[in-house]
Every structure is written in structure tokens, then in C-alpha cells.
Amino acid sequence: MTDPTNDHGAGPEKNDHGAGPEKNDHGAGPEKNDHGASPEKNDHGAGPEKGRGIFDKDLLDRCISCGFCLPACPTYALTGEETSSPRGRITLMRALETGRLDEDDPTLAEESSFCLGCRACETVCPAGVEYGLLLEQWRDHQWRGRHRPWLARLLMALVSRPWLLRLQGLVRRHARAGDSPAGKPSETQTAEEPASLMLGCVERGLYPKVSRAVQQLCPEVTVPPGQGCCGALHAHNGDSRTGAELAEALGERLPGTIVTTAGGCAAHLAHHLGRDRVRELSEYLDRDGHRPTGQVTVDGRRARATLQDSCHLRNGLGVSRPPRDLIAEVADFVELPGADRCCGAAGTYSLLRPSDSRAVLDPKLEDLDHMDVDFIVAVNPGCLRQLQQGLRRRRSRVRAVHLAEFLVMAGAPGAVGETGAQEP
Q1: Are 256 and 196 a contacting pair, CB within 8 Å?
Q2: Which of 9, 187, 269, 361 could bridge to 344 as Cys pair (CB 3.0-4.6 Å)?
Q3: What is the pLDDT of residue 157?
Q4: Of the candidates 316, 327, 194, 350, which has an alpha carbon nearest to the alpha carbon of residue 258?
């Protein structure tokens, strides 16, 4: 196997004297520096190598190899290996693009899978590298055909069939169009601004109470029937073309503002349909002036609650304040150390790489053990599942719950939250 990085994390190419590639004043790698010099040349010294067309060149060239991304990366924190950091993975992408690494190289296969895709690196990058898009392009190429994990192929096939998604509703009873006085505008919403609730693929089957809770919180939001997948699952697992097509199709089926209860779906839809069309639930409630009523209590006292951010909601859409404000209205909010760091769910990641997923989650659970909180609130069904399973393994008394259910709990008669029980 050819290792595209040296011991110091420099780029893959070495000159005739064994020196690494030239760097500009900012520590940039093989892209051009401020003076227009290009360190990458072919064997004849005739300029930069021709790419394979796997990646968007402008996106790939934007990385200046500064290393600001390293402390933000969960997998780099686990291994300390340069190749398991965003900077190291972009070096691998460049090696793949220029042919310096064969596409069947095991390091490429491992690192394209090991990455969580949490996009935390984007929030600290001074060059504005859109790493999430680069990762999608990498997996589009790396995970073609038989190279895509079989479990990812199975899940993508299942959610691509709307009739299977609708079948979940017959058993689990997620929200339906006729279950609430939907269509009635709230005091802060006009009739010309309809809103539609997107029913998440995972959520329909595992957490049907979430969509029903949204109906209680926002009776003006409609629930159009016949919804398919938004395509986020495909985009994150090597089929971004189908992911885009599904997003467009869902956008045509759902009128007006699309309200989602899944941070990952929100970021994917916003990318393809436009930011103005998509609102995650907490953002929608905050924007339209919905205020929760009552309070959540435990053993006669006001409950203590914390929040686990959705990576794509926070890092992709910049939404972090609204869910915290809503929780603080009905409970005593306590900030979770590292709430902005991935919980290890990362879509299909917890299924494809369960050991690594647990390794990312464990420090978070350790912090929860010392916080004396009653609830940890999630704004993404994948995160909710990850937290519930982790808390159950540790026999923790902390209960993981979705934001929608937590807010409804506050307004319920008695407004009492019993700790300990976890929804399957």
C-alpha cells in the first residue's frame, strides 16, 4: 500500500531530493500559493497533474492544509493519525484524483468509511472548505457497486420504496393528515404560508410519537400523504445523484415550508431545495413565535435537561440556539460538555461501524453520568436511537427523548416526566 502522507502530515509527493511538497506561508499543500506557484508537476516538470474528474477541483483546491480541522475531528481524536483527519483525508482525495493512489487502495476504502461526515471541520476552517460535499463525491466514486457496504445498499433499497415507508404507518401510527385540525394557520402564520411536516424514514417506524407530537405543537402544519425518502441516506452513502432526485421529488409533494424533525434531513433538503423552504422543528417554532406551555417535572421538582446537537443541523445549517431556548422554557437547561461534537450515530455509521460509533459516544455518556440531569434531548432520530441504546447499556437513569415529545410532555396534564424508561 502506498502511504500518501509522510510522518509530519505533509502531502503525498516528494521531490528528487526527498523533500516534501512546497508549502506557502499558510501551510498550504499542493494547491497554488498566493504568488501563483504550483508545486505539483508531472515527471517532465510540465505543470499540475491532470485529474480524474472525481472531485470538484475548486472544492479540492480550497484546502490550505492549515490543520485547524484536526482538534474538531472526532476520528482524529480517537486515533491521532493524520490520515484520519479532514486534512489527511483531503490529501487522500488528491492522491486519488491525480492517480497517485489506486482506487482500490485499502487506505482509501478505510478512511472513506471511517469518517463520520459530521462536518465539524467546516465550522473551524478558515478557507471555507465544503468537506461534506467532498465526502459525498468521494463515496460516490469509492462506494460504487459492490464496494458499497451491503447494509447501506439494503437500507437504501428499502427507503426508495414509498409503499414500504407507508406500511410502517399502518403498524406504528405516525401522524396523518386527519389526526389534527391541520391547515389552520397560527396567529403568527398567514394562510399564504402553508407548512408541511416531513415524515422521516427512520422516525416513522421507530418513533411515530414524534410526528404526532408535532401535530399537537403545530396544528397548522399539514401532513401530506404518500411521502417518500428525502434522499439524505443515499447522499451520505455513495449515491448523491439519487439523493438529489429524491429531495426534488419530495419538495414537489410537500407544499410551502417543509418542517422536519431530523437535523440530517433538514440539511440535505436545504441544500437541494433552498434554505428558505426548509425549517427544522425548533427553528420553525422559534421563527413563528410558538412558545411551549407548562413545565416538565420529576419527583415534584422542575426537571433538569440537556441537549445533544444534531451535527448537520448545527454544522450545516448553523442552528443551535432555538432548541436550547425551547428546553429552557419548560425545564432547567444544563449545557452538555461537547454537545456540539458527534454522538457517533452519523446516519448509517452506527450500523456500519458499531465499535467506532460506541467509541465516539462513550465520552459523552461519561459526562452525562456526572451531570445529574433527568433528560437528554435530541433533535434527530438517529441521535435519539444512539443515545437511548448507550444509556440502556449503562443502565443510566437519564432518559433520551426527542424535542417534540419533550415539549408536549411539558404541556400534558400534570406535566410529569418519569425517568428511566426508554422507548424502543
Answers
A1: yes
A2: 361
A3: 78
A4: 194
Q: Are 412 and 294 in contact (CB under 8 A)?
A: yes
CB 5 within 8 A of CB 91: yes
DSSP code string of 49-76: PPP-SSS-HHHHHT-----TTGGG-HHH
Q: Where does residue 113 rank: exposed (0-12), middle (13-18), buried (19+ CB within 10 A)?
A: middle
Q: Encode 11-47: b = buried (16+ Cβ within 10 Å), e = exposed.
A: bbbeeeeeebbbbbeeebbbbeeeeeeebbeeeeeee
Q: What is the pLDDT of residues 184-237, one digit of tens each?
A: 444 444 445 799 999 988 888 789 899 999 999 999 999 998 888 999 999 999
Which CATH code fits 1-147?
A: 1.10.1060
pLDDT tens figures, 65-94: 999 999 999 999 999 999 999 999 999 999
pLDDT, position 175:
56
State the pLDDT at residue 173.
61
Protein fold of 297-411? Rossmann fold (3.40.50)
Give the residues of the chain that fall short of pLDDT 70.
1-49, 163-192, 412-424
* Radius of gyration from C-alpha coordinates of the chain: 23
- Residue 43's SS3 state is coil
Q: What is the pLDDT of residue 289?
A: 79
The DSSP element (H or E) to which 402 belongs, if any, is: strand 399-402
C-alpha–C-alpha distance, residues 381 and 205, integer Å = 11
**Residue matched to cell numbers 407548562:** 294
State how far the Cα of 253 lies from the Cα of 194, in Å rounded to an integer. 13
Q: Give Cβ neighbours of residue 360 (< 8 Å, ≥ 6 apart).
A: 74, 75, 78, 116, 342, 343, 344
* Residue boundaries of the structural domains of the chain: 1-147, 150-287, 297-411
The SS3 assignment for 354 reads helix
